[in-house]
């Protein structure tokens, strides 16, 4: 089992995370990368890097043959799969072993046993681990599923048997929508995991999602490292993770921990794994699934235990025994993590792409940022939109929470949309602050979807002032010296200039004029006096009597601005320029690059506003494209299986005349 070189079969922040620990242990590291990832940090951090494809995951990170070939050519003795991609692929794990290399994780048999939810659930029932009532049978017809659903009762969950991460998982509240839900879940599961097998489970309404970190070695030792509460979720994907669980007691931890260890022993597990449970208000808990890999949220466990879980993985893979027994594990303080995504929460959480123009991760006591991005690289449509994890630790949960809110605000990415404001708002919810969050928190808090921050005229004024000052500084660089105290001076009254700004979907009329020491900015009828002072890497904007610390970046006519947790961009519109819009009247365009999964309408059919038109697959998820207006389908420009770029026209609708 000895090896001195590890190939990391992954990308982004987890690849960089594994490489750092491996190098600290004195091991040689090999990165794999695509053309889309050529400038990513993990490529630079590794001792060697191997190109494995242009970009699409099917021809690169999911291509086991290319990964194994890269490992052979680089002389790697072991492969660390990270999470996602091939990390829970039993066939890949077996191929690694057959190639004479070490797979840093459980063996293929354990992965296969826990990778299928139906089989895993049957095994857990046999092992005495509490499970949610449901159906995990081999008969997969709609008729069999309908019969089982009637026995289970509604509401129930439809889940992909072969995977997780919220893909292929849907809540069914009424019998009449079961057949359509099964069809969509099968399609999403087949695309994500290569299997359309499903299971059904009784829906446990608004439970807590609590998972236990387990570790096992080849010497028969199995322990747990405490729990993580992952209840704050959107579309079954985790948004906030924390350790320990706010309602955990020593007695409940002992019972759930014992069940988690029993689950690992049932498959003769080795390495790092996570056993996930649903915990209801009465204290009853039910096995959900086991993830046979390192979890995205492992840093919260590291921060409360003081352990390096990647180091443990490597040492166990080298044949060493676990360094601690169960009674030696200590939990110190509290840690909370959020995931920074390239997405637009105010626009249905659509994934976003674009350049990383500015990147400044937070620092400070108790703060950790695990990232996989650099300034200058592009956010690709080929991969999951998670960019970084922001984690804070403190002696109490409230200290950890307030530190994390500050860290979210101080972690700045400019160039593409992110969920920063959404994360800060979630952490500030009274229910979360009180430690009372369940899986229904976000749906209750924003039943109509997250609207985002309103367009604050004061911040728009700051954006205009940044543009004006940039214009002036550019002109001064080409001119002779002018004393600072003369800038903005005029013997005549200030004559403001007019300009139009595009902010999100709005066009805002503004004016700008200079005075000594600042700018007089008009925004939609309001007037603001703004002065800007350089402060380190950012600016301090004084607007009237208020001050705001901001970070700004100008790219041609667009200013990207960050203040607090707010991130927005404003584009100056030049006279005569053609303005594009994602939805102009009845013209529907692709909001992001992706693959057309299905088209639901034909020419000459009538649709209502909000009716589904097509399904676009992008960044591993399926996104419904809906009608922005009511009317008649005039032209369908796409077909199933077609690849689209952002802005490509999908469908044109002849809008109904609503005039009375």
From TrEMBL:
Chain ranges of the ATP-grasp domain: 121-318
Pfam families according to UniProt: Biotin_carb_C, Biotin_carb_N, Biotin_lipoyl, CPSase_L_D2
CDD domains found in the cross-reference section: biotinyl_domain (cd06850)
Lipoyl-binding domain residues: 581-654
The keyword Iron belongs to this UniProt entry's keyword annotation: no
Keywords in alphabetical order: ATP-binding, Biotin, Ligase, Nucleotide-binding
Coiled-coil annotated residue ranges, if any: none
SUPFAM superfamilies reported in the protein's UniProt record: Glutathione synthetase ATP-binding domain-like, PreATP-grasp domain, Rudiment single hybrid motif, Single hybrid motif
InterPro entries for this protein: ATP-grasp (IPR011761), BC-like_N (IPR005481), Biotin_BS (IPR001882), Biotin_carboxylase_complex (IPR050856), Biotin_carboxylation_dom (IPR011764), Biotin_COase_C (IPR005482), Biotin_lipoyl (IPR000089), CPAse_ATP-bd (IPR005479)
Matching SMART domains: Biotin_carb_C (SM00878)
Gene3D superfamilies: 2.40.50.100, ATP-grasp fold, B domain (3.30.470.20)
Protein name from the UniProt record: Biotin/lipoyl-binding protein
């Amino acid at each position: 089992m000895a090896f001195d070189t590890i190939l990391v079969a992954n990308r982004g922040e987890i690849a960089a995370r594994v490489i750092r620990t491996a190098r600290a242990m004195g091991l040689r590291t090999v990165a794999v990368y695509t053309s889309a990832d050529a400038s990513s940090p993990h490529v630079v951090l590794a001792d060697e890097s191997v190109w494995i494809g242009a970009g699409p995951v099917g021809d690169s990170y999911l291509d086991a043959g290319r990964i194994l070939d890269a490992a052979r050519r680089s002389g790697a003795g072991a492969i660390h799969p990270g999470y996602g991609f091939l990390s829970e692929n039993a066939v890949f794990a077996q191929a690694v072993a057959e190639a004479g290399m070490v797979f840093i994780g459980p063996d293929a048999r354990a992965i296969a046993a826990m990778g299928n939810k139906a089989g895993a659930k049957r095994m857990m029932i046999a092992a005495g681990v509490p499970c949610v009532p449901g159906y995990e049978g081999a008969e997969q017809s709609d008729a069999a599923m309908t019969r089982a659903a009637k026995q289970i009762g509604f509401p129930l969950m439809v889940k992909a048997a072969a995977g997780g991460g919220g893909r292929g998982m849907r809540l069914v509240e009424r019998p009449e929508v079961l057949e359509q839900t099964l069809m969509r879940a099968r399609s999403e599961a087949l695309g994500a995991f290569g299997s359309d097998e499903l299971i059904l489970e009784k829906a446990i309404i608004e439970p807590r999602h609590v998972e236990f970190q387990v570790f096992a070695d080849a010497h028969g030792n199995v322990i747990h490292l405490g729990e993580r509460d992952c209840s704050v979720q959107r579309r079954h994907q985790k948004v906030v993770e924390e350790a320990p669980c706010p309602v955990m007691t020593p007695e409940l931890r002992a019972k759930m921990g014992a069940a988690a260890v029993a689950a690992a022993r049932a498959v003769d597990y080795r390495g790092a794994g996570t056993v996930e449970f649903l915990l209801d208000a009465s204290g009853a808990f039910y096995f959900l699934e086991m993830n046979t890999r390192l979890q995205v949220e492992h840093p919260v466990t590291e921060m409360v235990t003081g352990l390096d879980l990647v180091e443990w993985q490597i040492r166990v893979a080298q044949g060493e025994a676990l360094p601690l027994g169960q009674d030696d594990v200590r939990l110190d303080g509290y840690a909370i993590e959020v995931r920074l995504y390239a997405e637009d929460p105010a626009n249905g959480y659509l994934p976003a792409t674009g350049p990383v123009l500015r990147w400044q991760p937070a620092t400070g006591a108790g703060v950790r940022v695990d990232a996989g991005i650099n300034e200058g690289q592009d956010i690709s449509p080929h991969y999951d939109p998670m960019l970084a994890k922001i984690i804070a630790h403190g002696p109490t949960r409230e200290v950890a929470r307030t530190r994390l809110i500050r860290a979210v605000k101080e972690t700045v990415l400019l160039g593409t949309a992110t969920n920063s404001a959404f994360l800060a708002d979630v952490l500030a919810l009274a229910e979360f602050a009180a430690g009372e969050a369940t899986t229904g928190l976000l749906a209750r808090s924003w039943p109509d979807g997250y609207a985002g921050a309103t367009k604050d005229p004061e911040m728009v004024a700051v954006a205009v002032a940044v543009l004006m000052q940039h214009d002036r500084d550019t002109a001064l660089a080409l001119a002779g010296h002018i004393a600072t105290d003369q800038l903005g001076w005029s013997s005549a009254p200030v004559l403001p200039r007019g300009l139009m700004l595009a902010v999100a979907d709005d066009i805002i009329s503004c004016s700008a004029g200079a005075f000594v020491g600042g700018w007089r900015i008009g925004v939609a009828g309001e007037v603001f006096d703004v002065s800007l002072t350089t402060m380190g890497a950012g600016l301090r904007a004084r607007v009237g009597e208020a001050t705001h610390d901001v970070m700004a970046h100008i790219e041609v006519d667009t200013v990207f601005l960050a203040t607090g947790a707010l991130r927005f961009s404003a584009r100056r519109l030049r006279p005569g320029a053609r303005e594009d819009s994602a939805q102009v009247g009845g013209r529907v365009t692709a909001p992001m690059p992706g693959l057309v999964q299905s088209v639901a309408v034909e020419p000459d059919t009538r649709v209502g506003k909000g009716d589904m038109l097509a399904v676009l697959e992008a960044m591993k998820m399926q996104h419904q494209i809906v009608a922005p207006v009511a009317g008649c389908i005039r032209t369908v420009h796409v077909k199933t299986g077609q690849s689209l770029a952002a802005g490509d026209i999908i469908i044109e609708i002849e809008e109904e005349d609503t005039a009375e």
